[in-house]
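Most newcomers find our protein records easier to grasp once they have seen one. To make this concrete, we reproduce a full record directly below:

===
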Amino acid sequence: MPTAAIVIDGKYRLLRPLGEGATGVVYEAEHVLLRKRVALKLLRRELAGQELAIARFEQEAVLAARLEHDNIVRVTDFGAADGGLYLVMDLLVGRTLGAELRRGRLARERAIEIGIAVLRGLEAAHAAGVVHRDLKPENVFLVDAAEGRPAGVKLLDFGIAKLHGPESARVTGLGMVVGTPLYMSPEQARGEADIDPRADVHAVGAMLYEMLAGRTPYVGENANLVTFAILSGRPPDLAKVAPEVPRELAELVMKAIAPDRARRIQSARELREALERWLEQKPQAAPVASSSETALDLPIVVVAPSAAKKIDPTIEIHVEPPLPVWRAPAVPPEAVYLAPTPPPPQPAREEHAAVARPLPIDERSRRNPAISSGAPAGYVHPAVVLTANARAGRRRALLVRLLLFAIALAAALRLAGG
């Protein structure tokens, strides 16, 4: 029978399938009287006789209906028809975060904005005593902007959510592992019964890790191997996997996915506020020294891993290991010393960009342009940051030529006298 010919409960005409999951199939549908488009989720027929599946489907409808928040999809109806259950939600236009990630990693600010929106929705759920327990990119929907409505982020699928209290006992057995392994907290992987909001914090941290690094914290060829990795130890440091992520942000994400929940960020609100503070205080471009400081005429030159290059006729730099030259495209007359932040030792083959930050220009640093602060003791960064005064360079070149001329003249006089 064509989909358009199926009417559910005498009210909703199915138009086309939108997607499916383990427990249900979602259709675009239309209310036959109101002519309003909705999303309708049907419990799979093969699960219609399973008590646990029915209980979870009912719980999803009840929990989502009680959670009124801009970052949680709204459930508008629930019922039974033709021996099956259905629930009706707002029809969303856009794509899941999972679909977005299949295109590649996200821009840093965009990733943080999505994380903040997800955490706002979780704050509302946790305040109502609901733990989602299955947060993953496929359950985060990125809503397109429309006329009169800005773009947004919505949480989906509260099918295995947990209530604090005995109400949830019939849908979660003792020792049962629930959730998606790639984003699952260690306590979920162990099958612990007392799952609390910190499991959702872990899942958000895992999604932030993936949005920033382009891979999940734990990897494995199958669910069992991923679960084993979760239970075996800490995930790889985000700062090493994605060195371009600022260390403060990487440390924040790693704290959100700490294996020990006592050491983890403790609430959705705490993580949201930390992300918002980071956005407000994120590193800005290095300020330019005032004109009252030493004026430098040459463009700033950064020498980083390639070969010895002549930067100025009077200066030759030899770097080991060899490194290419990058010239700033435009530098004002006043310039400042720039010092690179030392890269982490792993992974190999990664190129580490030098992060510019101002250093005091004192007499010592003028005499030694290779001075760099911030490196650990005994560490020599393979990059040299050089700046010089052109006029001083020309004077040095002139002095060298005069000295060579004097030496040649003296040699000639000795030969003539002999």
In short: Residues 296 and 389 are 5 Å apart (CA to CA).
